[in-house]
Amino acid sequence: MNRRPPCAANASPLLEGRGIGKSFGGLAALAGVDVAVYPGDVVGLIGPNGSGKTTLFNCLTRLDGLDAGRIHFKGVDITDHQPFQVARMGMSRTFQNIRVYRKLTVIENMLLSRQWRGARWPGLLRPSRPEVTERADDLLEFVTLVEQRVDLAGSLSWGQQRLLEIGMALMSDPDLILLDEATSGVNPLLVDAIRDRIMTLNTTHGKTIVLIEHNIELVADLCSRVVVLDHGEKLADGEVGAVLDDPAVSEAYFGRRGLNG
Amino acid sequence: MLEIAQRQPIRWLRRSGLLVLLVVLALLPLLAARGDGDGMVNNSTLFSLTQMLMLVTLASNWNFVSGLTGYIDFGHVAFFGLGAYATGILMSKAGWPFLPTLAVGALSAGAAAVLIGRATMHLKGPYFSIAMLGTFAALREIARVARPLTGGGPGLTLPPYLNRPLFYYLALGQAVLVVALYRWVRRTEFGLMMLGIREDEPGAEMRGVNTIFVKTSAFGLAALSSGIVGGMWAYQNTFIDPDIVFLDSRTIDMAIASVLGGLGTIIGPVIGAGLLYWLRDVVWASFLQWHLIVQGLLLIGIMLVLPNGIIGLLGDRSGLDPRRIWARRRKR
């Protein structure tokens, strides 16, 4: 595999969450989770349904408020930041339930996802600059949606919408990309395309990526590190091979009975 | 690309049609001035056209916020009212000339909208609508209670000034400017951000759009323009009181005009306001006793047949389907 070697452990993390806690009513979705993502990593975040993976993403991107813990991104404490501020700092994400602007065209979706850092009042009162449009067109080529350029995003197939979301996540030239089930509900051919794109992003463009994925094969293929969540707690965190062989992990995934016979 | 090529003649037709309409509208008062008083244009026609043009502006303002960002404002007449009272108070109590009072009215309405928007635009869907309904009702009561300033329930009388063509031209000028402004904003990055908020607000926020800034700026801009309409209306009417200024049916008219023409499109509210006025005249003339019932039934019928408004009938479906307004906010 030609993936980038994981960074030395003594490098400072790009993203670090300590003791992240989040409850919905009486249910603890996250109970004091620590995560660290180092520059150049591709980290897989796995765990059974309802284990808190998406909630962790929502906390990290500041969509959900935290009940406990702090989050640092690029060394800055972003715990009290607004989601748009975090996005402008270079963290972007995709969503489990696709969020494209359905009644806008594919190109408009892209233009609207540009890097808004430093965008001010008078500058906003003009159409997108040529360099932004150019970047959007390049990225549409990257995610193979050139022909759909002026189609409404809502008219694309599920898999194409996933690709569009990835394209949108790249528009802002982020340093860290969080992909939430980027391949779920996507046909096998497109899964391969998405896998290729993720790989290229990491190896060629040096992007740091965290992905929530149920496709373990894909995780084993792409990731240098895996974090396993179960019932809002971190069950394992380490090298792919070691984690996937961990009996506690298979127990969480397949249940006690599956293991003991 | 082919699609765009096919639309070229339609665009040309639309442009030349608009130009002819503008020229006709600009020349109308001249006909009246020549003394064709009983002919096509008399002072009362001019008066009702002025009212219609004011509704064009108000509906465009309302649609700019509600149609483009999806925040349905049930109390927009509050900003019209602030403008009306600014002109009323400054002219009758402080003896100011008319035009500077418009500026004061516009600024106070705009500033009020930014402040109120800061508080209410965190609310989603119907909650925002109800909060704005409350804001409007509260302002009406304040106008009633603050008697030393606003004249309270008995109202204020402004210096009378009968110059129908002047008001007509002011209303026409503002309508043209405002529609052109919104059309331009719609094509800028700011306009794209507004549509992004309408389509998926958390999504836009997580992609770096400062949604509260965009929403409140749009709200402030629309309110500023509604404040100017309010001031002109007050001077033209020469009398204001809380009930005729803070009139809930005025907000409803803005909403009906927008939805009728095409919610969330730029030209929709213009068409809608014109149609609403024409419809009202026709219905009024033919069903004196029943006009409100007939008008209501007609509107319900039109909504059912044309959810995308008149603009939707012409093939433009870029607007907002009113049936989706509150259903569209998906959970993440």
Outline the structure in words.
The complex is a heterodimer of chains A (261) and B (332). By secondary structure, chain A is an alpha/beta fold. Chain A has a domain at 15-98 and 174-256: Rossmann fold, CATH 3.40.50. Chain A has helices at residues 53-60, 83-88, 106-111, 121-124, 130-142, 158-171, 188-203, 216-222, 240-245, 247-254, 256-260; strands at residues 15-24, 27-37, 42-46, 68-73, 76-77, 91-93, 176-180, 208-212, 225-230, 233-239. Chain B has 332 residues and is mostly helical. Chain B has a two-stranded antiparallel ribbon with strand order 1-2. The chains are: A alpha/beta (261), B mainly alpha (332). Chains A and B meet through helix 2 of A and helix 8 and helix 9 of B.
Annotation keywords:
heterodimer, A: 261 residues, alpha/beta, Rossmann fold, six-stranded mixed beta sheet, four-stranded antiparallel beta sheet, 11 helices, 10 strands, disordered C terminus, B: 332 residues, mainly alpha, two-stranded antiparallel ribbon, 15 helices, 74% helix
